Amino acid sequence: MGRENRSPLTWLAASSGLLFAALMLIVDPLIAGTPWWAEPGLWVPLAFPLLPWLGVAGAMAWLGSAATSWLHALVFSFIVLAVGVIPGFFWTLLLFDAFPDSASPQIPVAVSLCAGAALMVLGPVAGGRAIFRHLAKSRPTAAN
Hints:
Layout lengths: L11 H21 L10 H5 L2 H15 L5 H13 L2 H14 L8 H32 L6
Helix pairs in contact: 1-3, 1-4, 3-4, 4-6, 5-6
């Protein structure tokens, strides 16, 4: 019944997903001058590309909440951001199609690509760390 002491890193993936959603749904359209929320006919077509991302982001947030090390929490957070490249790209295309005079800075796509590049470095680091840890545990110790 006691309160469980959890690291703030356990919420890193969920907060990254929320910040990315705010960036894609609010900040980028405001900068581009595309008020999609004023057009109710756009809500369903714009929501469709977000569904796969929401599923993956939810799964990574759930897995990230169980992370025990900062490296695992960071990897799950970057996965949430990197997977957003596809809906971010489609979101930009659909907004440009609905608002042809707009010019989106494509911030969500840039954030996703940077997170994917960071993941390409962090993935082997996390894998190598796990391998070395396993090898260190399996090495027999010398008896004195």
